[in-house]
Specification:
The protein is of the alpha+beta class. The chain folds into two domains: 6-54, RecR Domain 1 (Helicase, Ruva Protein, domain 3, Orthogonal Bundle); 58-107, no CATH class. 51% of the residues lie in helices and 16% in strands. It has helices spanning 6-16, 23-35, 38-54, 71-74, 89-98; strands at residues 56-57, 64-65, 79-86, 103-107. The strands form two sheets. Strands 1-2 form a two-stranded antiparallel ribbon. The longest helix has 17 residues, at 38-54. The chain is elongated and about 60 Å long. Pfam families: RecR_HhH (PF21176), RecR_ZnF (PF02132), Toprim_4 (PF13662). One of its GO terms (biological process) is DNA repair. GO terms for molecular function: DNA binding; metal ion binding.
Length: 108
């Protein structure tokens, strides 16, 4: 696809670099953002920038956290003798969604 704007091309390339986003979807997202109010696009840009700079890896389990130690590791109700070793943070999220596991995690 050829674009009349280098900035649009750059935005499409950036979106297309995300998993599961092809060039058509990337173009749709970029064009959608162009139609939005400045407050919405500024909020979107700030959310991404803040996410990248503020989210840390938990020092104990390697889950994502806003603090040095995640809420799961801090929770005194969690069974410390029960550790679930998972491959990714998405695995932690999936297990937590079930509400059935009450131990702690170790993300590889």
């Amino acid at each position: 696809m050829k674009f009349s704007s280098k900035y649009l091309e750059d935005a499409v390339e950036a979106f297309a670099g995300l998993p599961g986003i092809g060039r058509k979807s990337a173009l749709r997202l970029a064009l959608h953002l162009l139609k939005q109010d400045d407050l919405i696009t500024e909020h979107f840009a700030k959310a991404i920038t803040t996410m990248r700079s503020a989210i840390k890896e938990c020092q104990k389990c390697h889950n994502l956290s806003d603090e040095a130690v995640c809420g799961i590791c801090k929770d005194p109700r969690r069974n410390e003798k029960l550790i679930c070793v998972v491959e990714t943070v998405r695995d932690v999220m999936a297990i937590e969604e079930t509400g059935q596991f009450h131990g702690k995690y170790h993300v590889l």
